[in-house]
């Protein structure tokens, strides 16, 4: 017999559950209002990848992504959560098409936001062409939805991070929340090392990986707007905060984004390491940033004050 | 065909397209007398933060100032794989380039990609795959993933991969495989003038709606994507 959970509220359970460690389904269950989640094309329908059997690889009945509808503080939201433990959360044909369909509905409706819980290494190698194209279709669908007034929020804090084409989709979102273990990049550490050598990037130097691609650096750069502690309740609160902050998307946004990114290159383009960037931002003892606990780091990031608001 | 040959054949009425370290920026005159904005990546150059910001800036400077369609020429490496590019947020720069192209396309500046050489991964997503119509030229050699890297990850031999590639277009490199997926809308011929083929496309541009999944289904390359997306869309419309 396990101990009864009856005295624990959903918020307490969400607060006590690591986002990083949780499965995609647990993340959704605890992120949304209790009992509100309805899945579209769930695992019982066994819509598996048609391509993995070419490689004698096991399929998963949901192809590694859960999409559906639920409520957040009483308001309707569409949600998609990638399962980083199935093939690294990689995008394949079916996996990607579920998210594309969800975004197309959001565009048509116009008023229901979309939350994407990224957890992905990028394109699924065994169906590389279909996966790459799925990502292109999702990027287009995100921009069409945003142009129709839909807020698309990315939440990044899973085991597989948000790499490859996942990083590009994240860059198309209205706003992002990230936790310390959430990494955002295009080329992963091993990919850079394999292609350019260990002198360019030592993928086994975990401290280097975290400070180059990890959540703290992304938050300080303004690539992510909110830093969440690694628990599901913090991500829920971050999502609610971002939904309240995101403005409309249009020509002014892309122009502001051009200026924001060009300014970043001017300021930090010659920096060789994240610590140099943080130092250039005026952070004293920048080398201690990776050790800061979440509350102190959030205070620091808020003081630096870089966000992508009004841009992006 | 060299890049110069391609541009001359596309724009016999003149162009001002400059190649600066693999970044193509400029404009050209169409037969109609209209101007076409031109940008792209040449000489198999890797697309990093410095290249991407120049390309997106070129498009943004044109919006509001010019009218007419936009051409994106592509002969790139993949995204630039470096510590510096990732440190500075390469994902944001590549996404921004794609966003600018998509935004332009949705707002009266139809975009055409012309894949005439190599491209891969993040570079292809930010350029050719962010246009409304992606055209391939014979000899183009896109590779989302190259087979030696795939062999390493899948622990299969090159021979085994090449054998599997014969029966499915879903993972192997090459223009025809991407066309079967629906990613490449059409392949032009070197036998006719590229200007004629460009004018024919411009006269008959498809609507801005993304139909690549339906194209992939019709061509037998992606049998499930269109149906899955449509089913999810229907369910989501009912659920609100």
Automatic annotation (TrEMBL), chain A:
Gene3D superfamilies assigned to the protein according to its UniProt record, in alphabetical order:
2-enoyl-CoA Hydratase, Chain A, domain 1
List each copy of the CoA carboxyltransferase N-terminal domain by range: 1-251
Q: Name one Pfam family in it.
A: Carboxyl_trans
Taxonomy of the source species: Bacteria, Pseudomonadati, Pseudomonadota, Alphaproteobacteria, Hyphomicrobiales
Q: Which UniProt keywords apply?
A: Transferase
An example of a Gene Ontology BP annotation on this entry? malonyl-CoA biosynthetic process
SUPFAM superfamilies found in the cross-reference section: ClpP/crotonase
Q: GO cellular-component terms in the record?
A: acetyl-CoA carboxylase complex
Q: Name one GO molecular function term.
A: acetyl-CoA carboxylase activity
Classification via InterPro entries:
AcCoA_carboxyl_beta (IPR034733), Acetyl_CoA_COase_Trfase_b_su (IPR000438), ClpP/crotonase-like_dom_sf (IPR029045), COA_CT_N (IPR011762), Malonate_beta (IPR017556)
Q: What is this protein called?
A: Malonate decarboxylase beta subunit
Automatic annotation (TrEMBL), chain B:
Could you tell me which Pfam families the record lists for this protein? MdcE
GO process terms (BP): carbohydrate metabolic process
**Superkingdom of this entry's organism?**
Bacteria
Q: What is the name listed in the Swiss-Prot or TrEMBL entry for this protein?
A: Malonate decarboxylase gamma subunit
Task: Look up and give the organism this protein is from.
Answer: Bradyrhizobium huanghuaihaiense
Instruction: Write the lineage as a comma-separated list.
Output: Bacteria, Pseudomonadati, Pseudomonadota, Alphaproteobacteria, Hyphomicrobiales
């Amino acid at each position: 017999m396990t101990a009864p959970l009856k005295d624990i509220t959903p918020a307490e359970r969400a607060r006590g559950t690591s986002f990083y460690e949780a499965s995609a389904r647990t993340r959704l269950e605890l992120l949304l209002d209790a009992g509100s989640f309805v899945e579209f094309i769930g695992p019982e329908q066994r819509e598996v990848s048609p391509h993995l059997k070419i490689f004698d690889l096991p399929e998963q009945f949901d192809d590694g992504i859960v999409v559906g509808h639920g409520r957040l503080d009483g308001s309707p939201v569409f949600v998609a959560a990638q399962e980083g433990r199935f093939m690294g959360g990689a995008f394949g044909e079916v996996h990607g098409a579920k998210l594309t369909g969800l975004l197309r509905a959001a565009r048509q409706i116009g008023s229901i936001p979309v939350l994407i819980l990224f957890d992905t290494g990028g394109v699924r190698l065994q169906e590389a062409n279909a996966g790459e194209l799925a990502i292109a279709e999702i990027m287009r669908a995100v921009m069409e939805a945003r142009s129709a007034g839909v807020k698309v929020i990315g939440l990044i804090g899973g085991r597989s991070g948000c790499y490859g084409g996942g990083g590009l989709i994240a860059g198309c979102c209205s706003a992002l929340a990230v936790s310390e273990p959430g990494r955002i990049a295009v080329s992963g550490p091993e990919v850079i090392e394999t292609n350019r050598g260990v002198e360019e990037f030592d993928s086994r130097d975990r401290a280097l990986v975290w400070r180059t691609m990890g959540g703290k650096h992304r938050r300080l750069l303004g690539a992510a707007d909110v830093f969440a502690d690694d628990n599901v309740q913090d991500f829920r609160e971050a999502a609610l905060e971002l939904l309240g902050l995101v403005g409309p998307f249009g020509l002014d946004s892309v122009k502001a984004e051009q200026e924001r990114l060009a300014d970043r290159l001017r300021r930090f383009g010659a920096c060789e390491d994240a610590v140099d960037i943080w130092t250039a931002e005026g952070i004293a003892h920048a080398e201690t940033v990776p050790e800061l606990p979440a509350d102190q780091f959030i205070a620091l990031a808020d003081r630096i004050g870089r966000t992508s608001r009004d841009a992006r | 065909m060299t890049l110069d040959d391609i541009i001359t054949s596309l724009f016999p009425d003149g162009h001002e397209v400059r190649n600066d370290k693999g970044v193509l920026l400029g404009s050209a005159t169409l037969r109609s007398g209209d101007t076409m904005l031109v940008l792209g990546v040449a000489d198999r150059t890797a697309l990093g933060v410095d290249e991407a910001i120049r390309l997106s800036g070129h498009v943004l400077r044109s919006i509001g100032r010019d009218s007419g369609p936009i051409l994106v020429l592509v002969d790139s490496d993949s995204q630039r794989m470096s510590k510096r590019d990732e440190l500075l947020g390469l994902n944001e720069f590549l996404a921004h380039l794609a966003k600018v192209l998509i935004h332009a396309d949705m707002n009266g500046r139809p975009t055409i990609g012309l894949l005439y050489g190599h491209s891969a991964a993040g570079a292809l997503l930010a350029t050719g795959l962010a246009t409304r119509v992606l055209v391939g030229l014979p000899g183009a050699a896109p590779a989302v993933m190259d087979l030696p890297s795939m062999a390493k990850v899948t622990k299969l031999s090159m021979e085994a991969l090449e054998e599997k590639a014969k029966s499915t277009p879903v993972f192997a490199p090459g223009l025809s495989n991407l066309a079967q997926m629906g990613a490449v809308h059409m392949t032009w011929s070197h036998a006719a003038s590229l200007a004629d083929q460009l004018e024919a496309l411009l006269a008959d541009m498809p609507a801005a709606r993304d139909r690549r999944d339906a194209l992939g289904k019709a061509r037998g390359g992606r049998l499930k994507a269109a149906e899955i997306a449509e089913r999810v869309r229907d369910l989501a419309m009912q659920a609100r």
